[in-house]
Amino acid sequence: MIGTFRTRLAAGAAALLAAALLTGPAQAETTAASLVDPATPAGVQPTAGPAGTLVFSDEFTGTALNTAKWKARDQERTEADRADGLRWWYKPQNVRVVPENGGNLAIDLRKLGDKQYAGGRVDTDGIFDYTHGTFEARLHVPPTNGHLGAVWLQTHSWGDIKGSAEDGAEIDLIESAYATDKYAATIHYDGYGADHVQSAQVVPAPGLHADHYHTIGLNWTATRMEFTYDGTVVRTVTDPKLISQVKEYPILSHEILEWAAGDVTTAALDYTSTMYVDHVRIWK
């Protein structure tokens, strides 16, 4: 199963990682109070997971991306080993905040040219990161057709080759890579090169494509990680080699990965191919 997954790193991705290192440490918990959206219901607690203190939230109720919380990326993401000749990018123009259904972040799919497509990505790198807690995102993923919705965590130190995820990992809460109601919950560590290691599990997701919104979550402690779907634990990790012990920052992205089911060249280029995020909330 693990061998079916491809790494995220595109030919130009290293440039973004190197540039991000220059941004300095994230403000994290020292400014967490200012990162809680006033529109988040008072006292709200996780759908699945222990009660905690809300340290970050965004209900996406405005008219534009809140750049005090998020950065929208402009980056080519074409996989180095991609065989179909297609190229793709993250483009800030594909990131919108829309008022429908109480406010949503929308990340579109767009065709740029012949065999050239764009998705989008927002993240909190240099603004907010955290260690241990509960992360939930309520979202709608579009039908998988050569493109997918993803929610993940990342840190700058994860590429250090130390034989475990303890010094940082890419933690994929969801990659909606399948046409049926299931998705990948994956942990990557030791970089994207020859030393790369991943632990992947495909988990059931009833109604993922039939119903509009679902809550994807991660309960993360020093000794345990629980991946959740609509309040149900779908994957549990207790192996210490797979559990990050350092600060990670959240990422929301719309990916055009070759291993995703279907063919993006036949995908609809309208709202039906858009990823929508109703809210993001993180507790400690």
From TrEMBL:
CDD domains annotated for this entry? GH16_laminarinase_like (cd08023)
One GO biological process term is: carbohydrate metabolic process
Q: Which Pfam families does UniProt cross-reference here?
A: Glyco_hydro_16
Q: GH16 domain spans which residues?
A: 30-284
Is Cell membrane a UniProt keyword of this protein? no
- Gene3D superfamilies reported in the protein's UniProt record: 2.60.120.200
Q: What terms describe the molecular function in GO for this protein?
A: hydrolase activity, hydrolyzing O-glycosyl compounds
Q: Where is the signal peptide?
A: 1-28
This protein is called what? Answer: GH16 domain-containing protein
> From which organism does this entry originate?
Streptomyces finlayi
